[in-house]
Every structure is written in structure tokens, then in C-alpha cells.
């Protein structure tokens, strides 16, 4: 199920990749040997669909080995372009040590005149299947480029 979810996240990103695609990475997790990739496409004027994948090919402080994948839907309140500036939304995620989590997020995306992206975001969620009492954290400090 987890592999199907991960594949679905990337297929959705490719299918909606019409004129604007935001591709981002996060430099901070690299310190812990975690590699990130984020792709966001507009679904409507103020709505974005975002997929995030965090890969840990070897031992890291965060998880032993595996992945975390998130699919999020973001509503942008007052965008300059299609999808930028202040946003709120929801996310669902899965991973090697997580079955299926659902949560809410808040963030801000700045896009420069040269299409360089800076995004920061935070969210909290809950695992729906394991019913673990710990919360699932959604965090973002990404840089990228808008195509």
C-alpha cells in the first residue's frame, strides 16, 4: 500500500504539470543524511497540490532506513501568482514507520522575480491506522525553482 501511495503522489504531480511546476529541496535534512524532494502544481487559482518525499537510504538520526511521503492540499489566501504567499491546508502521509497520517498545515511561500522559491511550513497530524498517541509533524524549510 505504501508503494502505491508513493507512486500515486508522483503520478498526480506529473499529470497536473501543465505550465507551472514548483520543485524544491530542503538543505537542513542533508545534515542527518535525509534527502528530500517536493513538487507542487496549481489545481486552481488559489489551490496547490504538493507531494513531498523524504528518503533515508542508510542510517540517519530521524529513521533507520526508508521513506516518508506526504500529499498536501494548500489554499493560498492572497497570492501574487497562482500559488504563493500565505497558505493553510491539509496533508496525508505514509512511510516506513507510519501507516497513514492525516493533519493540518500552515506556511508561507516566497517566489522571487527570477523564480527562486523559499518556503517554510509547519503542521501536525495523527496516525489513523496505528492510533499511536504521538503526533505526526509536518515541517518544511525548502528552497527551489518554479518552472
Question: Can you offer a commentary on this structure?
Answer:
By secondary structure, this protein is mainly beta. It contains 1 helix and 8 strands; from the N terminus they run αββββββββ. The model has no long low-confidence stretch (mean pLDDT 82). An 8-stranded antiparallel barrel has the order 1-2-3-4-5-6-7-8. The radius of gyration is 15 Å and the shape is globular.
Defining key terms:
mainly beta, 147 residues, globular, 8-stranded antiparallel beta barrel, Porin
Record the SSE blueprint.
Blueprint: H1 2-15, E1 22-25, E2 35-44, E3 47-56, E4 66-76, E5 85-95, E6 98-111, E7 116-127, E8 135-146
Antiparallel strand pairs: 1-2, 1-8, 2-3, 3-4, 4-5, 5-6, 6-7, 7-8
Provide the spatial order of strands within the biggest beta sheet: 1-2-3-4-5-6-7-8
Low-confidence stretches: none
* Total strands: 8
Decide which structural class fits the backbone.
mainly beta
Radius of gyration: 15 Å
Percent in strands: over 45%
Order of helices and strands: HEEEEEEEE
CATH topology tier name: Porin
Fraction in helix: under 10%
Q: What's the number of helices?
A: 1
Mean pLDDT score, rounded?
82
Could you name the CATH class? Mainly Beta
Termini separation (Å)? Answer: 31 Å
Shape: globular
CATH architecture identity? Beta Barrel
Whole-number total of structural domains: 1
Amino acid at each position: 500500500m505504501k508503494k502505491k501511495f508513493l507512486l500515486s503522489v508522483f503520478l498526480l504531480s506529473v499529470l497536473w504539470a501543465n505550465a507551472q511546476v514548483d520543485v524544491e529541496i530542503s538543505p537542513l535534512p542533508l545534515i542527518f543524511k535525509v534527502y528530500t524532494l517536493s513538487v507542487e502544481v496549481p489545481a486552481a487559482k488559489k489551490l496547490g497540490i504538493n507531494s513531498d518525499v523524504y528518503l533515508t537510504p542508510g542510517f540517519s538520526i530521524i529513521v533507520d532506513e526508508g521513506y516518508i511521503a506526504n500529499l498536501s492540499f494548500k489554499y493560498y489566501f492572497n497570492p501574487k501568482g497562482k500559488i504563493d504567499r500565505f497558505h493553510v491546508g491539509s496533508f496525508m502521509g505514509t512511510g516506513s514507520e507510519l501507516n497513514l497520517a492525516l493533519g493540518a498545515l500552515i506556511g508561507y511561500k516566497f517566489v522571487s522575480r527570477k523564480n527562486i522559491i523559499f518556503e517554510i511550513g509547519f503542521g501536525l497530524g495523527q496516525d489513523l491506522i496505528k492510533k499511536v498517541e504521538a503526533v505526526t509533524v509536518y515541517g518544511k524549510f525548502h528552497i527551489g525553482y518554479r518552472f
